[in-house]
Write a structure and sequence with these properties.
Blueprint: H1 2-15, H2 18-34, E1 36-37, E2 40-41, H3 43-57, H4 64-89, H5 95-118, H6 125-133, H7 137-148, H8 160-192, H9 197-205, E3 219-226, H10 236-243, E4 249-254, E5 257-259, E6 272-278, H11 279-284, E7 290-293, E8 303-310, H12 320-323, H13 325-329, E9 331-338, E10 341-343, E11 356-362, H14 363-373, E12 374-377, H15 385-400, E13 402-405, E14 408-411, H16 413-431, H17 440-463, H18 466-499, H19 504-514, H20 518-528, H21 533-554
Antiparallel strand pairs: 1-2, 3-6, 3-7, 4-5, 4-6, 8-11, 8-12, 9-10, 9-11, 13-14
Helix pairs in contact: 2-3, 3-17, 4-16, 4-17, 4-21, 5-6, 5-18, 5-19, 5-21, 6-7, 6-8, 6-18, 7-8, 7-16, 7-21, 8-17, 8-18, 8-20, 15-16, 16-21, 18-19, 19-20, 19-21
Length: 558
């Protein structure tokens, strides 16, 4: 009795401290999400959902206004991230990824509707089934907003709050099985089909010796004075063959001028070698040339790290090999990212609009490469809060607009409006880099914090009646959720292979992108021992976010 009394008093104390309660859900959620069973972990979204379900069972609720703020930040940030690529990919070879995302979203959509009719599920549960089975948070957010905003009217005898609760509960019950099922299938499906992902990934990287994906770290800039007479007796072509790692930048300075030595020319005693390279290069090779010298403060060697955003039309579609960044610009490419996804920095990788190249080199060289590709960003930490704030305002206003067709009121809703606003501003940002600054860390925080704020509200609401729902329709709902997860994967795979002819490594990445699952992507990249699947993921992800957001509100009309 005493333990129950202490627990009750603790709960009452938490009810009086909403800030503590909210961040307790976040903290406990992250701890739960980080627990690993083999290679499987729930992740922070599922962890926060569980923590919210627990407190929701004891009557805790979140202010709807707070949850709406989280929803707005999340959906707008999703659109902003997808914006640079969404409009351009359709004009390139991204049509196949668009079609794959459509097939997977449509398959899940149809299975969820059929299952909800066969099982006579409560209104709103079909949206929870779709979002949980496809592990899609944008679908869940869109469905709840469509009900809350009045875009979808509850059937006679039901309330909006009741429908939103059904969406939350359906999502909570099916999400965990959807996530585990997706990861299990992605892990087991290739061996069952006799596909060796490692072998396929190596084949994709085999076009050139430099084709293997690289993510360079611990890059440094140093100066060496040639004092080793033996080096001066070997033509430069042999020096390169013996010592160069084919990625590092080496510039020769002689008599205060930088020179370009021809293949059969020789280094001389006293030449200065200005090198930008991984630390390992200096450890293994540097001392072979001579003594390291300390540069003056004003030296041109001042190495800069910068991010270059690919924007210019004549750069999009070019391969890293065609650009020959090391030779033409004297800049070291350390990694390539699109959004938060790392991409293979291989010579045959084709640049896409919105790709971010992390480079190291002399400031003037970095600036030249930036002019060639698009825009240079150096340590930008300030967010354009005016554009961010008014972007959300405009998105909500657009979502409020509707057209009457008979008895139906058709409009984008807040989710569609915010997504459209984010897409537009993200795209304009890629065209005019000085507009709408939202640095990657800030974007990650806004999207992650907004999602977790929204998800905490979902868990608290669903926790109130999840045990009753589990008792009534739980087992059948779980089976339906598994069907919503597995069927789109199977159909998507065979459509991708037989119709679209996508390489299996890229296809498995694209399937995880079509289901917006970063956790499943990590399983594919690990199985392939290569970042190549991320190319497929980024191709499908931008489309999937838009399609699944629309699907969330659309399914409520069936």
């Amino acid at each position: 009795m005493e333990e129950i009394s202490l627990f009750t008093r603790l709960l009452e104390g938490l009810r009086e401290q909403p800030v503590i309660t909210l961040f307790l859900i976040f903290g406990v959620g992250y701890l739960i999400g980080n627990i690993r069973i083999g290679s499987f972990s729930l992740g922070p979204v599922a962890g926060v959902l569980f923590a919210g379900l627990f407190l929701g069972h004891y009557g805790f609720r979140m202010n709807p206004g707070v949850q709406s703020v989280g929803f707005a930040m999340f959906i707008f940030s999703v659109g902003f991230q997808a914006g640079p690529r969404f409009f351009d990919v359709l004009r390139q070879d991204g049509l196949k990824y668009f079609l794959l995302a459509v097939v997977i979203a449509a398959t899940g959509f149809i299975i969820a509707i059929v299952a909800s009719k066969l099982l006579s599920l409560e209104p709103g549960t079909s949206a929870g089934l779709l979002s949980g089975g496809l592990t899609s948070s944008p679908t869940l957010a869109s469905a709840q907003d469509a009900i809350r905003s009045g875009q979808v009217k509850p059937p006679e005898g039901y309330t909006a709050d009741g429908m939103i609760g059904n969406v939350s509960t359906g999502y909570a019950i099916t999400y965990i099985f959807g996530l585990a099922g997706l990861i299990a299938v992605i892990k087991l499906f290739p061996p069952l089909l006799g596909i060796d992902l490692k072998k396929e990934a190596k084949a994709l990287e085999a076009a050139d010796e430099q084709g293997a994906a690289t993510q360079l770290t611990n890059v440094s800039a140093r100066i060496y004075k040639v004092t080793n007479e033996g080096i001066t007796k070997i033509p430069i072509v042999q020096v390169k063959k013996k010592y160069w790692d084919r990625t590092s930048i080496v510039r020769v300075k002689r008599d205060d001028e930088f020179i370009q030595l021809q293949q059969e020319e020789f280094l001389r005693i006293g030449d200065e070698l200005r090198i930008v390279a991984p630390v390992e290069f200096f450890t293994k090779v540097g001392t072979q040339f001579g003594e390291e010298i300390t540069p003056d403060v004003s030296t041109e060697l001042s190495s800069k790290t910068a991010k270059i955003v690919v924007i210019k039309k004549d750069a999009v579609g070019k391969t890293i090999g065609e650009l020959d960044i090391a030779r033409e610009f004297g800049v070291l490419l350390t990694s390539i990212k699109n959004g938060s996804i790392k991409l293979p920095a291989s010579v045959d990788y084709e640049l896409k609009k919105g790709d971010i190249l992390n480079v190291v080199g002399l400031q003037e060289n970095v600036d030249l490469l930036g002019e060639k590709l698009g825009h240079v960003e150096r340590n930008i930490v300030e967010t354009d809060m005016v554009t961010f704030a008014f972007g959300i305002v405009i998105g909500v206003i657009v979502g409020l607009l509707s057209v009457k067709v008979g008895q139906l009121s058709i409009g984008l809703g807040s989710a569609g409006g915010l997504l459209a606003s984010g897409l537009t501003i993200g795209y304009l940002r890629s065209v005019r880099p000085t507009f709408g600054r939202l640095p990657e860390p800030a974007r990650w925080f806004l999207m992650e914090f907004g999602l977790l704020l929204f998800m905490a509200g979902v868990g608290l609401r669903a926790g109130g009646n999840i045990l009753e729902t589990l008792a009534e329709a739980g087992p059948l709902l779980i089976v339906a959720g598994i069907a919503v997860t597995l069927t789109p994967i199977l159909i998507g795979y065979f459509f991708g292979r037989k119709v679209l002819k996508i390489n299996p490594v890229l296809l498995f990445g694209a399937i995880t992108g079509s289901m917006t699952s970063g956790a499943a992507l990590s399983v594919v990249t690990k199985a392939a021992d290569s970042p190549m699947p991320s190319l497929g993921y980024t191709g499908a992800y931008a489309f999937a976010n838009v399609l699944l957001t629309i699907a969330g509100s659309l399914i409520l009309f069936f």
